[in-house]
Amino acid sequence: MIVPLGGDSTGVFIALREFQVERVYLLYLEGNLIQKEQLQQELDKFKVPVTAEILNGPLLESMFKTFAKIKALEGGERVLVLTSSADKMGACAALSASFVNGLKAFAVENEKIMMFPVLKFSYYRLLSNKKLSIMRYLRTQPDCCASLEDLARRTKMSLALVSYHINGSAKTEGLVSEGLVDIMEGSHGRNQVILTELGKLLVDGLVESPTDPMQYQTENVKPASINFA
Fold first, then answer.
1. Which residues contact 88 (CB under 8 A, 6 or more apart)?
2. Predicted model pTM
3. DSSP state of 83
4. Contact, 86 vs 6, CB < 8 A?
5. Rounded to the nearest 5°, which phi and psi values hold at 208?
6. What are the beta bridge partners of residue 107?
7. pLDDT of 2-36, one tens digit each?
C-alpha cells in the first residue's frame, strides 16, 4: 500500500483492517519527516514491513517517479494507493499517478473506504512512433521550436504531417487533444510548441508502459540520434 503523507494518516489503520497489506510505502516530503517517523513507529506494532521514500524535486514528477519504481517492484495488480493521507496537492498528484498507471486508489472518509475507479489504459498504445519521436525531440530541445514550421524543419518532416500529429484530424486525436503538447502563443503571430507536464513524464518513462516502463527514457539521447523516418 502506498501512503503519501502530509494530511490525516489515521486512514492507514482502517485500511490495514480492511485489506491484507503486505508492505506499506510511506512517501514523504522533508517537512513531513516527523509525521513519517511517528507513523512508522506505530506501524511497527502491527508487524507490517514499512519502506519510506522521500519525494525530492517537483511534487508531481517525484510522485510519478516513485509510483513507477514501486509498481516495477510490486506489480500493478497488487498495489493500493491511499490518497486521503496526503494534503490536497499530494492527494491530487497521487490520484493522477494512480490513474495513468492503472493502480487501485482509495480514500478514507468518516472511517469508511471509498474506492476510486481504476482506469486501465496506456498512453503509449495511443502514440505512433512519429508522435513519440516528436515528443522526444521536444523533451531534449525544449526551446527549439517557435512554430510548427520550425518543428517540421528540425524533424525533417513535412508541415502537413507535423500538423497532423500535433493537431490531429476529424478522426484522429493529436498530441494537443491528448494533453501531451501545448501550443503557446508567441511573438510575431507564431505559436511555440511545448510538452505538457504529462508529456514530459511520459517521455521520461514515468507513466505506465505496456512492456519496459523505462523503454522510452531519453537520458543521454541526442537529437541527432532520433530517427524521424
1. 7
2. 0.69
3. -
4. yes
5. -55, 135
6. 114
7. 999 999 999 999 999 999 999 999 999 999 999 99
- Count Cβ atoms below 10 Å from residue 38 Cβ, excluding itself: 11
Task: Name the residue with cell 502563443.
Answer: 185
Phi, psi of 171 (to 5 degrees): -110, -15
The torsion angle over the Cα atoms of residues 56, 19, 73 and 216, rounded to 10 degrees, is -70
Domains of the chain: 2-115 (3.40.50.10770), 123-225 (1.10.10.10)
Interatomic CA distance for residues 189 and 183, integer angstroms: 12
Under 8 Å CB-to-CB from 130, ≥6 apart: which residues? Answer: 157, 161, 165, 228
| Dihedral angle sign, alpha carbons of residues 140, 145, 151, 156 | negative
Q: Which residues contact residue 106 at a Cβ distance below 8 angstroms, ignoring those fewer than 6 apart?
A: 15, 80, 81, 82, 83, 113, 114, 115, 116
